[in-house]
Amino acid sequence: MSREVEQREADEISVKVALGALTAFQGYVQQADAKVNTLLMVHTGGVVAAVAAMGGRSAIRWTPVVDGLLLAFAVAFCASGFHIVKAIRPRLDAPIPLNPFGITGIGLPHPYDRRAQCEQAWAMAELLGEIALVKNRHVQRAVPWTALMLCLGVVAAVAGG
């Protein structure tokens, strides 16, 4: 086998590995988005449940304790919501240079050089990895705030009843 054929086969394998990594990192982003969606449903459901529990009573006992619990609930709601929104917010800054594997590079000509394709696929995989990491960090920060919000909502509903 000639050196040129060996190099071409090695380049083809490198491109396949890079595309596999690109696919894996896209999966990581999708997994993070699923976590965000679940957290958003829990967050929204907690607010609806708290409002329904508190608003469904005609004679809520407004005490300093209930007021403090509702204030803490609002703080936890805002902190959790901040991180959920940060995780949802799309990242629109384009990789430099523009990449035909990314949404901002649609319409760019694809390079015929396998090494360039490999570099571009790895660059996009790295970008997707960064996006997944940021999303997961915000999910990690939102979970305790959401749990606290839910607990405070239940305690406020019980204390106000």
From TrEMBL:
Pfam families noted in UniProt: PycTM (PF18967)
UniProt keyword annotations, A-Z: Antiviral defense, Cell membrane, Membrane, Nucleotide-binding, Transmembrane, Transmembrane helix
Localisation: Cell membrane
Ranges for domain Pycsar effector protein: 19-158
Highest taxon above the source species: Bacteria
TM regions (residue ranges): 36-56, 68-85, 142-160
Presence of keyword Secreted: no
Presence of the UniProt keyword Hydrolase in the record: no
Protein name per UniProt: Pycsar effector protein domain-containing protein
Naturally occurring in which organism (per UniProt): Streptomyces morookaense (Streptoverticillium morookaense)
